[in-house]
Amino acid sequence: MPYFSTTVQHIRSSEIRDLMKLATRPDIISFAGGMPNNDLFPVKEIDEIFLTLDPQKKKTAFQYGPTSGYPPLLDTLNEYLRTKGLPVDTHRLMITTGSLQAINILGMEFIDPGDVVLTENPSFIGGLAVFKAFQADIKGIPLMHDGLDLEELELAVEKYQPKLLYIIPNFHNPAGIIYSKEKRRKVLEILEGKDIVLLEDDAYNELYFNEVAQKLTRPVMAVNDKNIEVVYTGSFSKIMGPGFRLGWMLASPEIYEKAEIIKQGIDACSPNFTQVLANEFMQRGLLSRYLKRIREAYAERSLIMKESLEKYMPEEVQWNQPQGGFYYWLQLPEFMDSAEILKESVKNGAVFVTGKTFDPENKRNNYIRLSYSNMDINQIDMGVKIIAKAIEQNLHKQLKCS
Amino acid sequence: MPYFSTTVQHIRSSEIRDLMKLATRPDIISFAGGMPNNDLFPVKEIDEIFLTLDPQKKKTAFQYGPTSGYPPLLDTLNEYLRTKGLPVDTHRLMITTGSLQAINILGMEFIDPGDVVLTENPSFIGGLAVFKAFQADIKGIPLMHDGLDLEELELAVEKYQPKLLYIIPNFHNPAGIIYSKEKRRKVLEILEGKDIVLLEDDAYNELYFNEVAQKLTRPVMAVNDKNIEVVYTGSFSKIMGPGFRLGWMLASPEIYEKAEIIKQGIDACSPNFTQVLANEFMQRGLLSRYLKRIREAYAERSLIMKESLEKYMPEEVQWNQPQGGFYYWLQLPEFMDSAEILKESVKNGAVFVTGKTFDPENKRNNYIRLSYSNMDINQIDMGVKIIAKAIEQNLHKQLKCS
């Protein structure tokens, strides 16, 4: 099976599936899912759009569309990306079925079995799954509070001659960090002249909590003065709803051209139905108003979690304060196995995802990811308390034994 | 590039793209597109659903769903497929992003570069593109008026030990034929004990024009008493709208299990937004009423085209009368090049797809596909007249030269 390394994928998948089953139990407080909040979706806005939509546009919504995307949405999105400093005039935009599809397409375009792909460690599980499915040899580069460990990156670039570097510079999943301006520049410097494609996944770009963070979100692709081949992906999942299954990819004409042919063979086009709605959502100015609302809501949740963490967590546990996005990434003492913490927490009614899941080598296990995006806001404090207690107990057990 | 044989794909893609550009020009009558009619979509029905949808369901529509599909839709669809005699109790159903994605997933699951895949000749261009992308060695088996040429199938099965056989038994695209009951049984007999997966693409199942045809539409999978590994795919594209990007795949638990993991890495889930609407469409009984309406509309179009073909086409041109679906498949005299006919027809204002496009070896060119599904009904006669004239002229030229 050349496209699919069954064993690894399978173990991972069933673990996650079991966890997700737990996560939907009403008696369990779930910090596991990386999804937007159910009560924050722009339901009213979409109702309004649907009620007032031009009948011709509605018919278009039912029909096949071009593989590249619904043309009015491409125009709208190009103008939106221009405001972020992205090179929309020299590059081409494609709508994808979620931004995961964009990563997949690039996998198809670039990865031969055995090719080295560099990712952050930790990294987004969906990205890792794609690279594994294409039998890439994934090398994880340690992620620090302000971006990749540059020394390690430099060494890996020299040593492995990788095809791709995959990064999530803004409000990282799972690590919750944002890259500093300097690290963005340095990453580009390290890649200069190296024939490595930089895949920049910017799914959380809009979810900043303050102006300082907002300024930092300027994409790496927007400051690319080194002529690096950057492919930029984004998503409607976090700014409208994952149920729309819409993402996008901005790439050089050479990469775009092959990507379009690949997409034609994958699903012909992304759902026109949701593309028409997404375009109206942006065109009518509803997106920017909506973003203001959800930024405030997620910031509030993040703050509540911060207070709970400070209140309950033993001092051996460390984390960075997220400036946007959905995640806290907790570092436990080296000797601790987060799978044990999970087992204990589940008993008392809280779940999360263990660190190993996000490690390309599926090893490092003294981390846990807490997502504050989609539980009842009043449960955050109780959930953190449960997890903290499990950590505390584990800590005492370890101390007793040593 | 292991997943993508650029050259072939690219030529094909740009040809099609040019054709599709012509096909959208208002001064051109297009028989080229294999899409449903723009004016026949269930717009009113979906409006009604949207206006009366339970708020909780609406929220669900915005969120991620399970990789296998929105559970209520899976239930509804299982019961619907049960009425077609399909083995829903022993097999598992998955919602896919169009049925093309199902074919893709099977490609990932089964095809190693160089593996032989048997298809009908002619066959659906999307299916062929998938198999080519996975570097299959595609062998086309001639298609007759009632299904595959069984002798050729038997020979190919012995000679090539193929991994997959891909067929479209109902209202074939492009050939417009339907398999006889006998041929369905014989295909199963030939595959017995051979370890070949039968991929049954049933995108046009519901689009029969009369009771005789309806009875014939019983899927091959539903009469599989030989224990053949059949994977059955279907689509909402022709019974609701391609813009929903929803299809499905029914497969044995073994095949399903891997398929689900593959899909998880491809796009995580199909659009929940359109899945919720599709489920309501079926649950509220709107689908069956809608199908009655579109069957009549397409039957009428088919009849008009029949009359025009009989009126204008020279006797050297042959075709089968479709009993459902969207297509007439015209056989021109052996010496004729349908690309020349196309060139001439375009000048006079009509386009179609040439036969070569549907030939796995991209050779046989004395066929043309005429779709009657999506032009102004009053233009069918004029369009057929234009194409007939181009054929007539070509015929005279050839006769003069010989």
Give me the side-by-side strand order of the main sheet of chain A. 2-9-8-7-6-3-4-5
Structural class of chain A: alpha/beta
| Global Rg of chain A | 21 Å
Q: CATH top level of the largest domain in chain A?
A: Alpha Beta
Specify the oligomeric state. homodimer
Alpha-carbon distance between the two ends of chain A: 47 Å
Q: Given the structure, what is the number of helices of chain A?
A: 14
Averaging pLDDT over every residue of chain A, what do you get? 94
CATH architecture annotation name of the largest domain in chain A: 3-Layer(aba) Sandwich
Backbone shape of chain A = globular
- Write down how many β-strands of chain A occur, each being a DSSP E stretch of 2 or more residues: 13
Helix content of chain A: 40-55%
Largest sheet of chain A: 8 strands, mixed
Low-confidence stretches of chain A: 1-11
**Residue share in β-strands of chain A:** 5-15%
Instruction: Look up the CATH topology of the largest domain in chain A.
Output: Aspartate Aminotransferase, domain 2
The greatest interface between two protein chains, and residues involved on each side, is:
A-B, 66 and 66 residues
CATH superfamily of the largest domain in chain A: Type I PLP-dependent aspartate aminotransferase-like (Major domain)
